[in-house]
Amino acid sequence: MPANRTSFLVGREGIGGPYFLLTFLHPETAREARPGQFVMIKAGASAEPPLRRPFSILGASPERETFTLFVKAIGPGSNALCALPLGGIAQCLGPLGHPFSPPPDGTEAALVGGGYGVAPFSFLGDELARRGQAARLFYGGRTRAELPLLGRLRDQGIEVVPATEDGSVGAKGRVTLALEAQLDRATKPQRLYACGPEAMLHAVARIAAARGLEAEVSLDPWMGCGVGTCLGCVVRVQGQGDARWKYRCACTEGPVFDAARVVWPGESESHARLLAGARA
Amino acid sequence: MNLAVELAGIRLKNPLVAASGTFGYGLEYEGVIELAALGGIVSKGLYLEPRDGAPPPRIAETPSGLLNAIGLQGIGIHAFVKDVLPRLRTHDTAVFVNVCGDTVEEYAEVARVCDAAEGIAGLEINISCPNVKQGGMAFGGDPRMTHAVVAAVRAATRLPVIPKLSPNVADIALFARAAEEAGADALSCINTLLGLAIDVEARRPKLGFGTGGLSGPAIRPVAVRMAWQAARAVRIPVIGIGGIASAQDALEFLIAGCHAVQIGTANFVDPGIYARVLAELGAYLERHGKSEIRELVGTLEYPGEAREC
Question: ipTM above 0.90?
Answer without folding.
Answer: yes
